[in-house]
Design goal:
The chain is of the alpha/beta class and about 350 residues long. It has 2 domains: about 110 residues, Rossmann fold (3-Layer(aba) Sandwich), CATH 3.40.50.2300; about 220 residues, 3-Layer(aba) Sandwich (Rossmann fold), CATH 3.40.50.300. The strands form 2 sheets. Strands 8-9-7-10-6-11-12-13 form an 8-stranded mixed sheet, with helices on both faces. The chain has a 5-stranded parallel sheet with strand order 2-1-3-4-5, with helices on both faces. A hairpin with a 2-residue loop joins strand 8 and strand 9. Helix 10 runs parallel beside helix 11. GO terms for molecular function: ATP binding; ATP hydrolysis activity. This is Septum site determining protein. It comes from Nocardioides cavernaquae. One of its GO terms (biological process) is negative regulation of cell division.
């Protein structure tokens, strides 16, 4: 069956200069929008258009008509927008007020996403260590690689004290955007822009730091990156720090959080305290690294379900040191465990 093409975006303005600019951006994005030159004419498609761009010239007329509230409405005008336009934006429930030409790249991204049509919600998985040295970053990288084998995937590194997902994967010499660049942007991060600018290999894009000193990314930057990654990738994996404001904010936005646990007395005690900080935020599962593990005993102590166990893998550290990454063979225990975990999370 041929998929139904997405409905066109809606532009509401009679300002010819503004309309010309928005149509130019639409053409660059591959979009053919519907145009309404009066407020009344926009109501026909108001509810169903994936994106509505309202010119500041017609915003007062629309406010008087009182169209039903909806997502995806943006007010657009030329630089020097009057304060009154922001009151109109609030009345219309607009998500943003954008000035041209300064916001043209961002509007281009919005229009491009409207062409792609609605996407299914991404599988979002956070991974953190129940204790130091549990191997959370390695497992996060394994999940990303396995996910990328069946479609685009994104791996966000939010742990400034970790080894770095790019180093574990052998991606550290790839060109692309890092956290430092993302934190300089303002406004909404576009899915296509993020997908195209990240260091990427074999379908897996990674967002981490450039070489040198690093500090935790700003929570707003992580929120924007997570949202954009979810719009542009079926699977998003986040390597989380064990504590801090970024982790506290991110776990509530993730569908699942996996805690990698060492089944030792100190490891289980630390994991129990770690899980206690997460229990009210999201769905938590344990990945236990070790041989001869009693899943029920671990689950009872840590107070979270064990979803996978795996023994330590010989040669793993050497493979990572050589730049081969954690999954140099798909038959490895790490690869099989990551595959099984992703399958279970997708059907949960």
């Amino acid at each position: 069956m041929t998929p139904t093409p997405p409905l066109p975006a809606l532009i509401v303005t009679r300002d010819e200069r503004l309309l010309d600019e928005l149509l130019r951006l639409a053409a660059a994005a591959g979009a053919v929008p519907e145009v309404a030159s009066d407020a009344g004419g926009s109501l026909r498609s108001w509810r169903v258009a994936p994106l509505v761009l309202v010119g500041t010239d017609l915003a007062p007329d629309l406010v008087r008509l009182g169209p039903p509230p909806r997502a995806g409405v943006h007010l657009v005008g030329w630089a020097g927008i009057a304060d009154e336009a922001f009151r109109h934006a609030v009345a219309l429930g607009a998500e943003q007020v954008s000035e041209l030409p300064g916001s043209d790249a961002w509007l281009l991204e919005l229009l491009a996403e409207s062409v792609d049509g609605p996407t299914a919600p991404a599988l979002t998985v956070g991974v953190l260590g129940g204790s130091g040295g549990a191997g959370a970053t390695t497992f996060a990288c394994a999940l990303g690689l396995v996910a990328a084998a069946s479609g685009p995937a994104c791996l966000l590194d939010t742990d400034p004290c970790g080894p770095g997902v790019d180093r574990v994967l052998g991606f550290d010499r790839l060109d692309g955007a890092r956290w430092e660049a993302l934190e300089q942007t303002t406004g909404r991060v576009g899915a296509r822009s993020l997908r195209e600018t990240l260091p990427r290999r074999h379908g897996l894009g990674v967002l981490t730091w450039a070489a040198g000193p690093r500090s935790a990314p700003q929570p707003f930057a992580v929120r924007e990156a997570l949202a954009a990654a979810g719009r542009g990738h079926p699977t998003v994996v986040v390597d989380l720090a064990r504590s801090g404001p970024v982790t506290e904010d991110a776990v509530g936005r993730l569908g699942h959080v996996l805690v990698v646990v060492r089944p030792t007395l100190p490891g289980l005690a630390a994991a129990s305290r770690q899980v206690a900080t997460l229990r009210d935020s999201t769905s938590v599962g344990l990945v236990v690294r070790g041989d001869r593990v009693d899943d029920r005993a671990v689950s009872r102590v840590v107070r979270a379900p064990v979803i996978a166990t795996m023994p330590d893998q010989r040669g793993l550290d050497e493979a990572i040191d050589l730049g081969r990454g954690p999954l140099w063979t798909r038959r490895s225990m790490l690869s099989r465990t990551a595959t099984s975990v992703l399958r279970d999370l997708r059907t949960a």
